Amino acid sequence: MAMTMMRSAMSSSQKKCGVGGLLINKEGSRLFSGFSFTPPPSSTPPPPPAEPSTNLFVSGLSKRTTTEGLREAFAKFGQVIDARVVTDRNSGYSKGFGFVRYATLEDAAKGIEGMDAKYLDGWVIFAEYARPRPQQPPQQYTGSPMSSPRY
C-alpha cells in the first residue's frame, strides 16, 4: 500500500532508484528513503575525560604540520617544553596527531582553551589532556625472527 502511494506521489521530475524506495529528482538530489535506521545502543560507555596534565594530545593535524609549526602555534599560550608531530615512518608525513608538553598545568589549560577547535595549517585541530599509555605486559623475545610480527 505504501509503495503504491509512493509511486502515485512521484512526479515526472522524480525517478525511483536503488533499494528501499530511494527517490532522486532530475538534479540528482536525494529526496527520501523508505528505510529508517536506528543505530544499536552502545555497549561501551565513552571513556572518562583525561586527568589534567601538562601533556596535551592534539588531533586533526594536517600532513603539512611540522613539529616546529605545532610548537609555535601552542607557544602563544605558555612555555612549551616539548612538541612532537607523530609521523609515518615511510612517507615522513604527519599521521594527523601530536603531543605538546607545557611547563605548568595553567599553561596547558590555556593551550587547550586557545587552540581547541581552531585552525592550524588550514585544518581544524582538537586539543585535550593526553591520557597515559595503558600498561602493556613486556614482550618475551624467543630468539626467532619469525616469532614476532613485522609491521
UniProtKB/TrEMBL annotation:
Domain of life: Eukaryota
All residue ranges annotated as the RRM domain in the record: 54-132
Composition bias type Polar residues, residue spans: 141-151
Pfam families given in the database record: RRM_1
Region (Disordered): 131-151
Family annotation (Gene3D superfamilies): 3.30.70.330
Keyword RNA-binding belongs to the record: yes
Keywords: RNA-binding
InterPro entries xrefs: Nucleotide-bd_a/b_plait_sf (IPR012677), RBD_domain_sf (IPR035979), RRM_dom (IPR000504)
Molecular functions per Gene Ontology: RNA binding
SUPFAM superfamilies named in the record: RNA-binding domain, RBD (SSF54928)
Matches recorded under PANTHER family: NUCLEOLAR PROTEIN 8, OS08G0139000 PROTEIN
Protein name according to UniProt: RRM domain-containing protein
Species for this entry: Aquilegia coerulea (Rocky mountain columbine)
